[in-house]
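Page 42, continued from yesterday. The earlier attempt failed because a stray header line got pasted into the input along with the sequence. Redoing it now with the clean sequence only.
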Amino acid sequence: MDDLKKIAQNTIKALQAEGADKAQCTAAVSEKREFNVDGGEFSLFRTLFDKSLSLMAIKGNKKGNIAINRFDDEAVSAAIKDCIAVAESAGEDDAWDIAPKQEDKNVVQGAPEADVDLLFSRTKELLENINDMFPKIMVEQLVVSHEKTNKVYCNTSGSSFDITNGIYEVSVMFSGHEGEVASSFFGSGVVTDSLDRPFIELGTIKKDLSDVEQQIHQKPFEGKFTGTILLTPGCLGSFISSIVGNFASDGVLLDGTSLWKNKLNEKVADERLTIHVRPDDSRIVCPEVYTTEGFLSEGYDLIEKGILKQFKLSLYVANKTGHTRAKNSAFSCVIEPGDTAYEDMVKGIKKGIIVGRFSGGNPGTNGEFSGVAKNSFLVEDGRITGAVSETMINGNLADILTNLVAISKETVCDGMDVLPYMAFDGVVISGK
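This time it went through. Structure tokens are written below.
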């Protein structure tokens, strides 16, 4: 860590010597140990090493960025000159800035040291659990790893952050098979800082395996109707990401295309919906410590009881638009649970589908989305009547937030987000 700090500090001094008015630098090294399983059999164990040096300089209100993966003097010197050259050739913009001096931090997170023997045992145990509990599931690929990272951040404001962290990550891709019939493939995964529990008990891995096994025999349905979609936590995460990207992020606020650009402190969703962005939540594994501009990260509310409270903005776009910057640059999404059990949510659906995975293009700036619902079940009169083959759904991202049917009592944490099940009305569902 001392070597990294020396590299970062010397790089900042050199950037200033080259004329930078403000600058920041991050030096990091990582070590990843990884098991690979292909076709149900262990195929690879490897250790990967990485290093990175990221530089940013502001000179005369012009910004330059450079990243390299070497720490030798020649490479660093060249990167410093390149960073300044990029800044000098950029357009002038007085909105570029970095954070003022922050409290120095020396943080150790997660599980920096790997227990490789136990990691192997848990991986082997997961394969055995799948084979015993879900015999119709074929594990196409399983990647389990531990990654340790040492990272130092310094800037010309005098801030210095030393971060050491370690995480275990599980990612499994699988499908269901019976004779010649197979389900669509599906992926499930988690990050964790503990090996105390079997992997199959983490996140939604067990339920995802069960659902896919039940999706081997799919049936298409005829016709088209406007009904309810019940999104699983994993699928909900992708929808929330699209909503934030379309209505509350840098690009759409900067170019003025956001439907929410004039909606701060106004209702944009059902009052039951509260979305926190909380890297400081204890359930988030190895959360962000500082933002991309060098501010210490804090949690904030994006939507509180249906009211839009904050845009997800960088310091630059906040300066350009006059809005406040977001208090972190992560997206550790924590959605408050509702008061309805998942089973009761299903019982309350007259006609609709449970969506496990959605495949579609980027929504339009007006929020219109269209794509294929995969790994899904048809619900009729409060009962799951079977798995359905790929089905088209389309609607509007802004509208579904106001057409909220229910939020589940249950929430799922995968180490990155904490999400419930959510059901929305007014979505067009199309079969053959």
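Notes: The mean pLDDT is 95.
Reminder to self: strip header lines before submitting.
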